Amino acid sequence: MAHTSDRIAEDILGYLKSHETKSLLRFITCGSVDDGKSTLIGRLLFESKMIFEDQLAALEADSKRIGTQGEEIDFALLVDGLAAEREQGITIDVAYRFFSTDRRKFIVADTPGHEQYTRNMATGASTADVAILMIDARKGILTQTRRHSFIVSLLGIRHVVLAINKLDLVGYDRAVYEAIVEAYRDFAAPLDFASITPIPISALRGDNITDKSGETPWYHGPTLMAYLETVDIADDASGAPFRMPVQWVNRPDLDFRGFSGMIASGTLRPGDTVKSLPSSKSSTVKSIVTMGGDLAMATAGQSVTVTLDDEIDVSRGDVLCAANDPAPAADQFQATILWMNEQEMLPGRTYLMKTGATTAQATIATPKYAIDVNTMEHLAAKTLSLNEIGVCNLNLDRTIAFEAYGDNRAMGCFILIDRLSNETVGCGMIDFALRRASNIHRQALVVDKAARAELKGQKAVMLWFTGLSGSGKSTIANALEQKLLAMGRHTYILDGDNVRHGLNKDLGFTDADRVENIRRVSEVGRLMVDAGLITLVSFISPFRSERRMARQMMEEGEFVEVHVDTPLEIAEERDVKGLYKKARRGEIKNFTGIDSPYEPPLDPEIRLATTDQTPDEAADRLLAFLREKGYLA
User: Fold this and answer.
1) What is the pTM of this model?
2) CB 135 within 8 A of CB 184
3) 16-55 pLDDT, tens per residue?
4) pLDDT value at position 22?
5) Known catalytic residues?
């Protein structure tokens, strides 16, 4: 299987020890589709003799059956493991492979070239030290070449190999090679790579992979393998201040309490003073525990359990830092985001943000700009679509410890998760905290919500009416308010149409604008509840996520979801405003129920079926609910 060495026979223990202490290089292959990424990795595995004999036999058989190289070995099949990949001759998922030489160990990620799988490529690049950017010599630099280069730069990879592949198909033409190199250097100048090393190769033929090719006598640089074995990836993480995100509070019995995680940067010794963030409590390190015994020192990249002298509050997701140089902490950031979902990003919607072991709720503002990956130009944008990159502000529901991604990759990266589907929808890099927010504090007020409500002889509440257009939301809310007014209660109606004449007149009806519409109304409604009012909110509010956001703004018992449940055919039959007819004729775009979805509540406090009760009867039912629950003192 692996490469052989005389030392194996002479000194097996010494050989194993040397293998254990070799440096590890993580690298990716990336670029456009069909540039030869999988073939290159297959060739590297073959040349480093990391293939079992039965694997080689299977590879030869598969090459004849489903390969793309005729009677020759199709090295791409070594890493294209999915059936769909083999059938289509493309890479879909990220494939990780390990191999080693006498000088170094390697983990390589074969990433897909198709635009729709850019998110998979970003995943593979997130832990790499070097990127091998493949370019088909016949095609030159393509859009996906530029996109992958930009993502590589964003993710902090400083060393790039420009592997100009399939040179055999252009007759090993030096002029073709040099033209591509010159064009790429011009494009990549703003990306600030530490090094760009061009190498002319043929992954299929093995030219300049492990041995110099006689077909390129004009090339005097290293072979690809020689470069990978010698590239300096010295990481200064050990010299940076100590940071360790806590993955697990280790409590096997009553006598032991430790905090487990991987050290992101710096070094740690027993006796060092550390601070836990965001609590800012400090203590002294008692011991550094591992499976192999206690350590006198631990450094970046090691997974350890730290015990402390004091019983301070440390939880999963907290960060242990050097007490004399702690990480900053904030709840608002500017970040660069790569959107990874087919449904566009919706500014104003709340997503889950996961960084390390910390999960927070994050609201994304409208992008400051999107980035054109071809020109690096900053473009105006209201949202981000699949594979688009933009710069946005994020507002979190809690303070987290962080560092800018450019300073600490482990502390500055995050993913965004849809709260309902639990899908990962984006990834991002923290640029900096919005420090002005740290100067804003809540003003303590003597007269509070309870006092205002008591003065009115009621309990403040928000009744959120949701349903299709024409379901009767506004009619029922209006009838209820009249009944409450007759009882001397203090109320206010926030109606969807009325609000769009003032506060939200700048918003349209795209999904992104609908989210912002509900966010603003939720904030206004919260202020009205704080004023002690019975607030009636009548909006279609089609998305569960935004209705949940509104609920989470309120205290327990202050949000009552009222589903005015009317079937689409009944609502369309009523069509009081003629909107459904216009939507059916295509005169109104993004109309809920026609060409924009409505997500009915799953568990509302009250469901009103308007097909079997009048608006007055529905209002009476709501009035009875308010009495029963104690909202009307």
Assistant:
1) 0.72
2) yes
3) 666 666 788 888 888 887 777 778 877 777 776 655 455 5
4) 78
5) 541
Radius of gyration of the chain (CA): 31
Per-residue confidence band for 83, with pLDDT thresholds at 50, 70 and 90: very low
The domain boundary residue, chosen from 176, 211, 230: 230
Minimal CA–CA distance to 411: which of 393, 394, 390, 433? Answer: 433
Residue 480 vs residues 483, 603, 623, 626: alpha-carbon distances, Å: 5, 22, 7, 11
User: What's the pLDDT tens digit per position in 211-268?
Assistant: 899 999 999 999 999 999 999 876 666 678 999 999 999 998 888 999 999 999 999 9
On whether both 398 and 253 belong to a single domain, the answer is no
- Residue 603 backbone dihedrals phi, psi, to 5 degrees: -150, 65
Mean pLDDT of 334-350: 91
What residues contact residue 443 under an 8 Å CB cut-off, 6+ apart? none
* Percent of the residues in the chain that have a pLDDT greater than 70, as a whole number: 85
Closest CA to 110 of 126, 92, 83: 92
Domain stops at, among 290, 322, 354: 322
Residue 385 belongs to a domain: yes
Contact 382, 367 (CB under 8 A): yes
Tell me which DSSP letter residue 442 carries.
P
- Nearest CA among 284, 242, 247 for reference residue 262: 247
Q: At what angle do helices 118-125 and 143-154 cross, to 10 degrees?
A: 40
Amino acid at the residue 623: L
**CA atoms of 171 and 530, how far apart (whole Å):** 76
What is d(CA 384, CA 375) in angstroms, rounded to the nearest whole number?
Answer: 18
Handedness of CA 46, 50, 53, 56 (dihedral sign): negative
Same domain? For 379 and 483 the reply is no
Q: How far apart are CA 345 and CA 379, in angstroms?
A: 16
Strand partners, 276: 281, 320
Count the Cβ atoms, other than its own, within 10 Å of residue 189: 11
Strand order in the sheet with 534-538: 491-495, 534-538, 461-466, 559-565, 606-609
Place of tokens 């009495």: 627
pLDDT, mean of residues 119-126? 73
- d(C-alpha 525, C-alpha 388), whole Å: 34
